[in-house]
Each structure stands twice: as structure tokens, then as C-alpha cells.
Amino acid sequence: MDQDTERDLAAIKRLHDIDMRASKEGDFATLRTLMTADAVVLPPGGRPISGRDEIAAHFVRTKAAMRRFEVLDYVLDFAEVRIAGDYAFEWGEIRGSMRVRPDGRPAHSSYKVMRILQKQSDGEWKVHRTIWNENA
Questions:
Q1: CA contacts within 13 A on the Cβ side of 81
Q2: How does DSSP assign 11-60, residue by residue?
Q3: Burial profile 15-34: b = 16 or more Cβ within 10 angstroms, e = fewer
Q4: Number of domains making up the chain
Q5: What is the pLDDT of residues 117-131, one digit of tens each?
Q6: pTM (2 decimals)?
Q7: Which domain holds residue 117?
């Protein structure tokens, strides 16, 4: 593996780490910074959400809904990451565990995810397109 690819994979790993930490903490301000200005989010059963303003509004709604839960764990587990120039394609799983408020009942989630990342001029990577759906 050449040095450029190693650097890119390390930057993508940083993106994953920040994404997991921010998702677990409910830090939607940080999550917004991990997306390109013209990102598109394709949530299960929903319409496409595109651009900074729509994604910010979506995150506000998501944050409000998440108040019902205490997130205990959130893991992005990518089975494959492929770099093609200034884009990368990745797929894998999202797994989470949480406690439902106020009764403390446990809940778990598991999703398949596919994302397209875009390399930025500073060498960092951001989420450009993302789609996920619940595992059966």
C-alpha cells in the first residue's frame, strides 16, 4: 500500500472515530461538520435530505427524538472501504445500544450502511452520501 493510500485510510479512520464519539454523545453540531456542504442523507422510509440547512433541521428533529434514550454504545463497523481518487465508498454495519427513558429498559439497533465519502482540500474526508436500513 502506498503512502497516499495509508494517509487517506488514516484520515477515514479519524472520521469514523469522530462520527462514533459524536453519535454516542448526541453531538449533532460535530456530526454536521463531518458532512460535505452538498451532502445527501437517505434515511430509511424517508425522503432524501440534502444540503446543510435540511440536514441541520433533520439533526434538530433527531436530537429531540433522542431525548427519550440514553445512548450506551454506538459502533460503526465497516466491512469494506475503497478509495477511488477523491471519493471513497464504504459499507458495513451500525450497531447501538441504549436505555429508554424514564424506565431504563434496554434497546438495541442494528443497521446496514453504505456511504460515499469525499476528500477535502485539507486531506480530510467527509460524508457526501449516506444510506442505511435496519437489519432484519
A1: 20
A2: HHHHHHHHHHHHHHHT-HHHHHHTEEEEEEEE-TTS--EEHHHHHHHHHH
A3: bbebbbebbeebebeebeeb
A4: 1
A5: 999 999 999 999 999
A6: 0.93
A7: 3-134
